[in-house]
Amino acid sequence: MLTPPREETAGVRAAPGRVRVPSRGRVVAARFFGTRQGRLGFGLLASMFLLAFAGPLLGRWSATELDFSAFMRPPSADHWFGTLQTGSDVFAVTLRGARRSLLVGLLVAVLSTGVAAVAGSFAGYYLGWTDRTLMWVADLLLVLPAFLILAIMSPLFTGGRWLLFVIMMALFLWMVTSKIVRGMTRAIKEREYVTAARFMGVPSSAIIFRHVIPNLASLLIVDATLNVSAAILTETSLSYFGFGIQPPDVSLGGLIADGARTALYAPWTFWFAAGALIVVILAVNLIGDSLRDAFDPGARRGP
Amino acid sequence: MAGFLLRRLVNYVVLIAVATSLAYMLAATALDPRSNYEGRNPRPPAAVVDARLSRLNLNDRTPLFERYLTWAGAAVRGDFGRTWNGDRVNDDLARRLGVTSRLILLGVVLGSVGGVLLGALAAVGQYGWFDRLSTVAAFVVLAIPTVVLANMLIIGAIWLNDRLGAQIFLVSGEVTPGLAGGAGAGLLDRAKHLALPTVSLALGQVAVYSRYQRNMMLDVLDADFIRTAMAKGLRRRTALVKHGLRTALIPAVTYFAFTFGSLLVGATITESVFGWHGMGEELVASIRTNDVNTVAAIACFAALAVLLASLASDLLHAVLDPRVRVG
């Protein structure tokens, strides 16, 4: 578990031009890149991003093009990852799926961590009815089966409305973090700088956004990172059943679902998408774990 | 203690009621049971369909709130109505719950025991080869989604069966229908069917448990209370088993209750890939067949399972950890 960061951040930031004190960000980055695990995770994720977004420039085929002279062909010089039943190029299709999966994962993670930060800190700061209401909503969302709700709502996500899907997924991912944030906010609320700000007449919401949430940054960054993999995994299982990203859009989950049917006699339809997904999740988990260590070197690693 | 439990139980009942009602409203609005009949050939007359839908309380021409009241009135008495083709939802789900329980029981037990043992071994030899190996393995396993893992297992099993020319692993269903032979053959057949889904469930859990257990064991190995126990004359082994193990097992036990509760409905992918007709598979099937009553019943059951699991894990935590005071 992370301890709330001390005042060192504030002190360091206020010293420009004098003795060069390394900023907290730089210290954390140095610790992060000092471990093999951190470098490996960052390298893997960066290359996946590069491949997903710059790869199409290299490939000869686009994801929507069909090659009517090659159906279900194994990898060749013309089609690097082979072709599907429809004649589409697996390389191009996989990259398109990876782009969508990465984007969905990142957006859901940022959004859900944002909601967790706001809900948790408001509940912990105001307590009373705000607290009870927010935490009851969190409990309710924990109890509702997210998979079922998202699956029922999937017809709404057709026609390129995948952003709605992102919002709905984020809605089911913030609850546990918000409870941790709430607990830590209650501790921060008792600190001198918050009391000082309150006596100076700073409004409560300004205190929350200016003093409480920035002090939870390390927890939130780690949480957002780990949420990326959670979001991509949820999206994959939904898409496997056709409840996630809707056609004509496609994500890695949908590709894996299609590929699994033909995997036995055409392994290339399954393994490239599956491999891309595994590498992304592995990279994100490695980064999250190393970030946690970098922010809080004293604490022991969680799972 | 009693007051605390009572307050919690009341809160749980309210949460389940609200969650189930929300799920019902959403399902009744979004799903369209009428389309099940209209797709039939020959197409039944509209009046017949209407009458049947009304009898099942699925008619979208009845106002939503009225349907909800009819449904809730029966649901409070424990009757979740009928599926769109007339079976009783309760019987259907009870059968599927049996299937799911038979599927996940071995998986969660193997996963937790295996993970705890691996984690403890890794902690005892911290930074040794086994510790490093299990850390890497856990990271890799946690990166493989169940969908991919289950399909990988199937591909591997079919390859192995081909190689050996024998059906070692069976990849679809719970039993072979119409199997001849006595109880022994039947049991073997079940075991062959169960092996792969169990591995697909257990592997990820082994990874999670081993990480938890390793960290807890490391904390315990150099904790003050172990030193104290040894200072008063216990041998290290006795101190670890009597005082250490109880503490070190807390996260594993808590996580066990949580996993069991969520897998009752959440083994969707394993069940679908391996063709077991359990709760998770029904969840997907009921949405595809516009089965409003089944969807609501599953939502209710899922909420109940999650809350009971969290209650169980809290109680176990209170029993195992002497520092926890209830109230």
UniProtKB/TrEMBL annotation, chain B:
This is ABC transporter permease. It is found in: Cell membrane. The keyword Cell membrane applies. It is a multi-pass membrane protein. The keyword Metal-binding does not apply. Pfam families: BPD_transp_1. InterPro entries: MetI-like, MetI-like_sf. PROSITE patterns: ABC_TM1. PANTHER family: INNER MEMBRANE ABC TRANSPORTER, OLIGOPEPTIDE TRANSPORT SYSTEM PERMEASE PROTEIN APPB. SUPFAM superfamilies: MetI-like. The chain crosses the membrane at residues 12-31, 103-124, 136-160, 252-276, 296-320. Belongs to the binding-protein-dependent transport system permease family. Keywords: Cell membrane, Membrane, Transmembrane, Transmembrane helix, Transport. Its main location: membrane. Residues 97-317 form the ABC transmembrane type-1 domain.
